[in-house]
Specification:
2 domains, alpha+beta, about 375 residues, seven-stranded mixed sheet
Length: about 375
């Protein structure tokens, strides 16, 4: 079946390999039509979905993550041609990005390097384990993120299959839907309060180990000083340790707009703020979490035998990952194996936080 006949988002074809849709909104989100278009292109034609945005557009964190997972090619209109949203490579034709090599000499668009006025945006990536039991309920991580980062005052929670996330917060309802859509479902999340916005995604995946709840949320509090980021991040990781079963969590800092949307030009490199390594990872590495915590100014958090390593990682310069690199070096030296070997083991890598079962090439239909 041709894509044109199958879907109203189909706008053009590029050669035999590209199915093109033009997304002209000022802020481009992961709406229902786009989600269905990505699924239709892959299922009915095998072509590459090509998403073309305007030069002034911004994108939501959900769009950023879920279109990348779907293998879509995101291009920005740029003068008489197009540039890659991720990377800034310019070419005169869409087809140039779909072939083995462009027909003209590639170049980086100067417009990709333009900096816009932005604010601090924190990213929380967290993977939580749930036993495959009837009593399991997802979503507590989102509530803890709000408690850690939102200023005092009421915060509204909403979720949905797409953007805008318009359904009232209901952890039981989310869990019920996730069960019906197993083995995987991707949801959108939005939190709003006075001077506070957080948006992103929550994926629920069935793995051989149980159920994984994987959350990626971008958080903007424009009136807050940078000195507050690390204490609040550490408070979140401690709360996750006390109330959930975290496998891994990382808080990073970058730049975005006050509504958490991201520029389609070059982004400020992310910097680590704090990290949590869960009990399973520590066991696989064979490390003494107390010794590692003492060496890096961290703490051991958790309940009973479910102990996690929490370490601050704040660096002075954007894009400086030296504190995390030093932590990995310590884990390698102190443990009975290395981080690379743990992540490289096929069974462990597939179920690892952010691994193939968290970042599927083809997200579930209606993601």
């Amino acid at each position: 079946m041709a894509v044109r006949a199958a879907h109203h988002y189909y706008d053009a074809q590029s050669g035999d390999t590209g199915a093109v849709t033009f997304l002209d909104s000022a802020v481009v989100g992961f709406d229902e039509g786009l989600s269905d278009f990505l699924s239709a292109v892959r299922r009915t034609s095998g072509r590459v979905p090509v998403l073309i945005l305007s030069d002034s557009a911004r994108i939501t964190p959900a769009f950023d993550r879920l279109t990348e997972m779907a293998g879509a090619l995101s291009l920005i209109r740029d003068g008489g041609g197009y540039r890659l949203m991720r990377g800034g490579l310019w070419a005169p034709r869409v087809a140039d990005f779909l072939t083995q090599g462009p027909t003209s000499a590639p170049s980086i668009s100067p417009r990709h390097l333009i900096r816009r006025p932005l604010v601090d945006v924190l990213y929380v990536s967290a993977s939580l384990y749930h036993p495959a039991k009837a009593s399991a309920m997802v979503g507590r991580s989102v509530e803890l993120i709000a408690e850690a980062f939102a200023p005092a005052g009421e915060v509204s929670f909403s979720w949905g299959r797409y953007e805008p996330a318009g359904a009232a917060w209901d952890r039981a309802g989310i869990t019920s839907l996730a069960r019906r859509k197993m083995p995987a479902i991707d949801l959108t999340i939005a939190l709003h309060g006075e001077g506070f916005t957080a948006t992103g995604t929550m994926s629920v995946n069935r793995t051989r180990l149980g159920i994984e709840e994987y959350v990626e949320l971008a958080i903007a509090v424009p009136g807050r000083g940078a000195s507050e980021h690390e204490p609040r991040a550490l408070a979140l990781l401690r709360a996750l340790s006390q109330e959930t079963r975290p496998q891994f969590a990382l808080v990073t800092r970058t730049k975005g707009f006050p509504d958490t949307s991201l520029p389609t030009s070059a982004r400020v490199p992310a910097s680590p703020v704090a990290i949590l390594v869960g009990r399973a990872g520590l066991k696989q590495l064979g490390v003494n979490p107390s010794a590692v915590a003492e060496h890096h100014g961290g703490t051991v958090e958790g309940v009973g035998k479910r102990l996690n390593l929490v370490v601050p990682l704040t660096a002075a310069a954007p894009g400086d990952w030296a504190p995390l690199i030093q932590l990995i070096k310590t884990l390698d030296e102190e443990g009975t194996t290395t981080v690379a070997r743990v992540l490289g083991h096929s069974d462990q890598a597939e179920s690892a936080p952010g691994g193939p079962e968290s970042r599927r090439t083809n997200p579930a239909s209606g993601a």
